[in-house]
Specification:
2-enoyl-CoA Hydratase, Chain A, domain 1, single chain, alpha/beta, 49% helix, 6-stranded mixed beta sheet, 11% strand, globular, 3-stranded parallel beta sheet
């Protein structure tokens, strides 16, 4: 059975990511197939809107297929990674500017590459099981797939918080942070999709409103003063020091410090620089351009291969980063990683 199912159902272009045992992780071929479908439907009068979801109960999409990238790293095949990220980022840009309504049903885990194919859509639905995160620092990468734009646009310094700690957001948090637009209870998702398939109503929001409900209070919103005080620090060293000393924030979000401590020193430093640079010029073009500067240099200058080994391959969770601490990362290295390509 195909890893991705693209078909026309009623008035909708329907896409289902179909690797439930792998939490619907995106392969290179899945990205290319999704792009082909979107391009074909863009001017197709039979398709009024696009609906994308994930197979199984556990995840919409928990990220990209990093095991294949890891093998490319072992083979010293830098071009495979560059080609994968080029194609994936082109898909993210297509979704961001898609002329028809693009409705993403973000149930379960939505992380990394899953954020890229969902949270740039025009209509982003979260539900009871949603756990949305950008945990790339933990594998030696920066928040990418246009995620740096979402982080840059989040309230205050929440973007630095989410990017550095990999904090998993609930439905209410996702709405507050700007990663989603509406909450639909899990038991209403089937009816929502059925209505979208059957209807040629030009206003998709009218259809969604029939099923949407208030998501409740966001814990992140309630603690924004603390988050701004900590994650508005000058650099990662200052942020980490302030987080370690902030008992109130850690009492509410006890995993934040551990999430940050688990990150690659290079990735942590680059993430702060990336999010703040995109905040100064908050466009998708800026975000994808700067993210690709980092991922283009993935093999020679980052901790990505080692991060994947420790987290996914060997699962010893004991990465041997290139630097023992973020204080040891030369600022010139971060500047080089985010510098324009030839």
């Amino acid at each position: 059975m195909s890893d991705i199912q693209c078909r026309i159902d009623g008035r909708a272009g329907r896409i289902t990511l179909n690797r439930p045992k792998a939490l619907n992780a995106l392969t290179h071929d899945m990205c290319l197939e999704l792009e082909r479908a979107l391009l074909a439907w863009r001017d197709d009068p039979q398709v009024d809107h696009v609906v994308i979801d994930g197979a199984g109960d556990r995840a919409f999409c928990a990220g990209g297929d990093i095991t294949r990238l890891y093998q490319a790293g072992l083979d010293e095949d830098a071009e495979y990674g560059r080609r994968f990220w080029r194609d994936e980022y082109r898909l993210n840009a297509l979704i961001h500017e898609y002329p028809k309504p693009y409705i993403a049903i973000m149930h379960g885990f939505v992380m990394g590459g899953g954020v890229g194919v969902a949270a740039h859509g025009s209509h982003r639905i979260v539900t009871d099981s949603t756990r949305l995160a950008m945990p790339e620092c933990g594998i030696g990468l920066v928040p990418d797939v246009g995620g740096s734009l979402l982080l840059a646009r989040a309230p205050g310094h929440l973007g630095e918080c989410l990017g550095l700690t990999g904090h998993r957001m609930t439905a209410a948090d996702s709405l507050y942070a700007g990663f989603a637009d509406a909450y639909v209870p899990e038991d209403r998702l089937g009816a929502l999709i059925s209505d979208l398939v059957a209807s040629d109503d030009a206003d998709v929001w009218v259809i969604i409103a029939r099923h949407a409900q208030p998501a409740g209070d966001s814990m992140l919103a309630a603690h924004m003063d603390d988050i701004n005080a900590v994650f508005g620090g000058h650099d990662v060293i200052a942020i980490r020091s302030q987080l370690d000393a902030h008992d109130a924030l850690l009492a509410t979000f006890p995993r934040m410090a551990g999430g940050m401590a688990a990150g690659s020193p290079i990735a942590l430093a680059a993430t702060v620089a990336l999010v703040r640079a995109v905040r100064d010029a908050p466009t998708m073009e800026t975000a994808l351009d700067m993210e690709y500067r980092f991922t283009h240099r993935w093999l020679a200058s980052t901790d990505f291969v080692e991060g994947v080994r420790a987290a996914v391959i060997d699962k010893d969770h004991a990465p041997r980063w290139r630097h023992d601490d973020v204080a040891a990362v030369p600022p010139a290295l971060i500047a080089d990683l985010l510098a324009p390509l030839d």
